[in-house]
Write a structure and sequence with these properties.
This protein is an alpha/beta fold. Helix content is 43%, strand content 16%. The protein is built from 14 helices and 14 strands.
Length: 368
């Protein structure tokens, strides 16, 4: 097999990784119960607690991708026949509905148009009317580039006695995430976005309220692999065998967390915001305009309406030329937005002025 090409990954993920992370991935293997590895695991769990803004003991890197993190949160908190209110502001809210329905839950959807945040009054009305077991929604909707305000919805859910599940796949390490202050019971993320680690792990965190719910279930969690009462034996103090953890991936995540925490979350968050502003400013003269209203835009994932010239020629061929001629990947639209927008990711290592300038120059040449 030949060497893979160098790409500037400016799509919705994965993002490029720091050379220190690549070096960490090449470390020698040890056993998943080796004391040296368990010390790294302790460090990873502590770092994830800091990023999630939580003191939850059961905060861990699930050995699977972010979609499995979603499934783990819902599978542990829902039983067949339970009511769940799901906010649907894009593809990943839709996925929550699908996952919950497959578990036999009774799903109430609260929807909004792609590119707009969930209506808080609609969410609050549904919560108060249904009094669900779980309220689930997305903090940073990767398919639309919308940042969802969290606190009012979470507060209403807690008042109704509901458990709150939050998708932080795209927001973690690029935006403030404060699970404890917001009152979130279960949250999940992915490593390939603002953490700038390879895909394959899903950071998750469960509150004590969530763990109590699991202990009080009438039926076992439908997934043996994702049952947090079993995972707690390995990721808790006992370190009892559950599965063979992906050692190299966790070593890479450990180094990625060190990079994040050395920079500092406030500086990293500000860097993402500055890169997004520059992207909008640099691409505006080329006819690219933001889909999302100011105040609700994700800094790490910008959705841009395409200029007429691009729509006329077809946006997919232009994206392919960016990849083939310039080594730059950007993402197309999903669902209702397919063919109408681009999703430009400035995540982690790529949230820099140089990324924006490289994309601008390549687009200017192609559009000329």
């Amino acid at each position: 097999m030949g060497t893979l090409p160098q790409r500037l990954l400016l799509g919705p993920g994965p993002s490029n990784v720091n050379p220190r992370v690549l070096a960490a991935l090449s470390q020698p293997l040890v056993g998943h119960l080796d004391p040296a590895f368990l010390a790294v695991m302790d460090e990873v769990q502590a770092g994830l607690r800091e990023l999630f803004g939580t003191r939850n003991a059961l905060t861990l890197p699930l050995s699977a991708t972010g979609s499995a993190g979603m499934e783990a949160c819902l599978a542990n908190l829902l039983e067949r026949g339970d009511e769940v209110v799901v906010g649907v502001a894009g593809v990943f809210g839709e996925r929550m509905c699908d996952v919950a329905t497959r578990m036999g839950a009774r799903v109430t959807r609260v929807e909004t148009e792609p590119g707009t945040p969930l209506p808080e009054d609609g969410m609050l009305e549904a919560i108060e009317r249904v009094r669900p077991r779980v309220v689930a929604f997305v903090h940073a909707e990767t398919s639309t580039g919308v940042l969802q305000p969290v606190e009012a919805i979470a507060a209403c859910a807690r008042k109704a006695g509901s458990l709150v599940v939050l998708d932080c796949v795209t927001s973690l390490a690029g935006l403030p995430v404060e699970l404890d202050r917001w009152g979130i019971d279960a949250a999940y993320s992915g490593t390939q976005k603002c953490l700038s680690a390879p895909p394959g792990l899903s950071p998750v965190s469960f509150s004590e309220r969530a763990l109590t719910r699991v202990r009080e279930r009438a039926t076992p969690v439908q997934s043996w692999y994702l049952d947090i009462s079993l995972l707690a034996g390995y990721f808790g103090q006992e370190r009892v065998y559950h599965h063979t953890a992906p050692i190299s991936a966790i070593l890479g995540l450990a180094e990625a967390l060190r990079v994040v925490l050395e920079e500092g979350l406030p500086a990293r968050i500000a860097r993402h915001a500055a890169a997004a502003r520059q992207l909008r400013e640099e691409l505006a003269p080329l006819g690219f305009t933001p889909l999302v209203a100011d105040g609700y835009r994700l800094p790490m994932l910008t959705t841009l309406r395409l200029p007429e010239a691009v729509l006329a020629m077809g946006e997919a061929p232009l994206r392919r030329r960016l990849l083939d001629r310039h080594g730059i990947e950007v993402g197309g639209g999903l669902g209702k937005l397919a063919g109408q927008i681009w999703r430009v990711g400035l995540m982690g290592e790529n949230a820099r002025r140089s990324s924006v300038e490289t994309l601008r120059d390549a687009l200017a040449r192609e559009l000329a």
